[in-house]
């Protein structure tokens, strides 16, 4: 069985093995399931950016156009609009509320979401189906927004590919290379693996975005605990990857500790009716 593209007609059945892989990795902008403690914002992704923000946007345009060629995008306006609403709710309380974001839904079974340069954020249908509620889904999206906000994506791409290659891609001068980068992003989970510091920053950002937006930030920890428990019940061939990026109890506990620093506030975004409606449209 090609586990990279498992049929996912029954999300609860396959969520364990799908989640296992994604626990271990952080795709191009996104370790959906890599979790980290966070002692603070210092020493995060590092200040290693070789391209400007305007160049980053152009690079994002080139890459998103290529992703649209290589992947099936969900076009259901209800689904895409729902994801966009969650995204903009989080952005509205972020440090960069005016940054240009675009949200896309990819028809892919893996439990994942990822960001690419220029504020393009991709949510995969497998993630929507694996979440128990909107807050869990929002938590993963907030983590990805953390990567964007902290410019982790281009930092990592600059390291991975070098500035001359990225420049030729953002200028649209190198279509074969653009195709190759996107294929790597979509198919090779390790190609854009983030540092642990970057993960810490993204987790920290996610907790605070959720809290400010009105979600219960504990939903993020709950989601990762659930996936971790699934992995432990049924370890698989990707265990070594999982171990290289452990979703350890102490990392999750550190996130919970960060949450406990926040002033008690009842979440306002607890209605899951739209979430369930969107899930139903994807089944
Ligand atoms: Zn991440």
What topology does this entry show?
Elements: H1 11-23, H2 53-70, H3 77-91, E1 102-106, E2 113-116, E3 120-124, H4 125-130, H5 134-149, H6 152-161, H7 163-170, H8 175-187, H9 196-213, H10 218-233, H11 239-244, H12 249-260, H13 273-282
Parallel strand pairs: 1-3
Antiparallel strand pairs: 2-3
Helix pairs in contact: 1-10, 2-7, 2-8, 3-5, 5-9, 5-10, 6-7, 10-12
The structure holds zinc ion.
Question: Could you explain how this protein is built, in words?
Answer:
The chain is mainly alpha-helical. The protein has one domain. The protein has 13 helices and 3 strands, in the order αααβββαααααααααα. The chain has a 3-stranded mixed beta sheet. α5 (134-149) crosses α9 (196-213). Zinc ion is lined by residues 26, 30-31, 34, 143, 147, 194, 199, 202.
Summarize the structure.
This protein has 283 residues and is mainly alpha-helical. 57% of the residues lie in helices and 5% in strands. It has 13 helices and three strands, in the order H-H-H-E-E-E-H-H-H-H-H-H-H-H-H-H.
Strand content: under 5%
Mean pLDDT: 76
Q: Which ligands, by name, code or SMILES, are bound?
A: zinc ion
Strand order of the largest sheet: 1-3-2
DSSP summary: helix tally: 13
Q: How many structural domains are formed by the residues?
A: 1
Separation, N- and C-terminal Cα atoms: 21 Å
Helix-residue proportion: 55-70%
Query: Low-confidence segments, ≥5 residues, pLDDT <50?
Result: 1-47, 237-245
Number of strands: 3
Cα-based radius of gyration, to the nearest Å:
17 Å
- The geometry reads as globular
Main pleated sheet: 3 strands, mixed
Strand and helix order: HHHEEEHHHHHHHHHH
Query: SS-based structural class?
Result: mainly alpha
């Amino acid at each position: 069985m090609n586990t990279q593209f498992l049929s996912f007609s029954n999300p609860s059945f396959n969520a364990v093995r799908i989640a296992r892989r994604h626990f271990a990795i952080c795709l191009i902008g996104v370790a959906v399931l890599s979790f980290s403690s966070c002692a603070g914002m210092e020493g995060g992704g590092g200040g290693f950016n070789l391209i400007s923000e305007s160049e980053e946007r152009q690079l994002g345009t080139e890459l998103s156009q290529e992703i649209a060629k290589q992947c099936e995008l969900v076009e259901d306006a209800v689904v895409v609009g729902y994801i966009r609403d969650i995204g903009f709710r989080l952005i509205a309380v972020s440090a960069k509320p005016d940054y240009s974001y675009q949200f896309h839904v990819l028809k892919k079974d893996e439990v994942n979401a990822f960001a690419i340069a220029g504020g393009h954020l991709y949510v995969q249908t497998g993630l929507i189906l694996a979440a128990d509620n909107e807050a869990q889904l929002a938590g993963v999206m907030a983590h990805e927004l953390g990567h964007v906000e902290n410019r982790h994506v281009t930092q990592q791409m600059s390291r991975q590919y070098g500035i001359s290659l990225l420049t030729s891609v953002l200028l649209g001068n190198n279509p074969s290379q653009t195709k190759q980068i996107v294929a790597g992003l979509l198919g090779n989970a390790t190609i854009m693996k983030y540092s642990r510091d970057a993960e810490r920053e993204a987790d920290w950002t996610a907790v605070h975005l959720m809290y400010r937006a009105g979600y219960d930030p504990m939903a993020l920890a709950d989601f990762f605990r659930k996936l971790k428990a699934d992995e432990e019940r049924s370890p698989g061939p990707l265990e070594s990857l999982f171990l290289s990026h452990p979703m350890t109890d102490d990392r999750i506990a550190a996130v919970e500790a960060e949450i406990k620093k926040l002033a008690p506030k009842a979440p306002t975004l607890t209605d899951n009716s739209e979430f369930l409606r969107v899930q139903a449209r994807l089944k």
